[in-house]
Amino acid sequence: AQKITQTQPGMFVQEKEAVTLDCTYDTSDQSYGLFWYKQPSSGEMIFLIYQGSYDEQNATEGRYSLNFQKARKSANLVISASQLGDSAMYFCAMRNYGQNFVFGPGTRLSVLP
Amino acid sequence: DAGVIQSPRHEVTEMGQEVTLRCKLISGHNSLFWYRQTMMRGLELLIYFNNNVPIDDSGMPEDRFSAKMPNASFSTLKIQPSEPRDSAVYFCASSLTGETPLHFGNGTRLTVT
C-alpha cells in the first residue's frame, strides 16, 4: 500500500531564510509521481511542484525545489528565501499511474518576521 | 479555464437533513476525487472516479454517503441523513489520468448542528 510520511508537524523559519520540509514515501511501484501542495489559512489547496519517478533532475518552480532521493524514497520540498506569505500547511502527495492520490498529514510552516 | 467549481461554499443544516454537495470538473479532466478534511483526521479520500466509473469508494464512511457522476463534467456527494460528526470541509478535485496534479475546488464547509 502507498503511504506518505511527513515527520514535522510544525516548522518555523526566519523570513528570507531557506527551509526544507521532509517527505518520505512507500510504494512498490516503479512509476509514480510526487506532488507538493500548499494550503494557506484561507483553505484552498494550491499545487506547487511535481516530480516524476523517472525524472533524473530535481524539479524546480521558482522558489520551490524538490530534493528527490529515489533510493531513500524521499521527496523533500525546499523553499528558498522564505516570505511571510509562505506561512501555511504543506502536504506531500503521491500518485501511481491511474491510481489514487495519497496525501501525507501535512507540515505547518510559520515564517517569522 | 474556470477551475474546479464547488457549490455551495458553506452549508449549515440540522441533524437528519439531506445535504447535497456539487462539483464541476475542469473541462477535459477524466478523474474526479472527493476528499473530506477535519482537524482530527486531516485529508481523507472518500471516493474517486475514472471516466465516470467509481474506482475506490472504501473511504465513504457509511451508507449515509453516496456519490455520483451523472456525466463527465459533474459530480454530486450526498449525505442522508446528516449527523454532527459529518461537519468538515469537503473538497472536490479533478485531474487527467496518470501522474498529473490534482486541481482542487475551493471546498464546501459543512456544519451539521
Oligomer: heterodimer
Low-confidence region ranges of chain B: none
Largest β sheet strand count, sense and barrel closure of chain B: 7 strands, mixed
Rg estimate of chain A, integer Å? 13 Å
Q: How would the global form of chain A be characterised?
A: globular
What share of the residues of chain B does DSSP label as strand, in percent? over 45%
Q: β content of chain A, as a range?
A: over 45%
The tally of beta strands of chain A, per DSSP, is 12
**How many helical elements of chain A?**
0
Give the termini distance of chain B in whole angstroms: 36 Å
Low-confidence stretches of chain A: none
Described by the principal axes of the CA atoms, the overall outline of chain B is: globular
The helix content of chain B is: under 10%
Order of helices and strands of chain A: EEEEEEEEEEEE
- What is the overall number of helices of chain B? 0
Question: Biggest sheet of chain A: strands, sense, closure?
Answer: 6 strands, mixed
Along the chain, the helix and strand elements of chain B come as: EEEEEEEEEEE
Using only C-alpha atoms, the radius of gyration of chain B works out to: 13 Å
User: What is the helix fraction of residues of chain A, given as a range?
Assistant: under 10%
What structural category characterises the helix and strand content of chain A? mainly beta
Summarize it.
The complex is a heterodimer of chains A (113) and B (113). Chain A contains no helices and twelve strands.
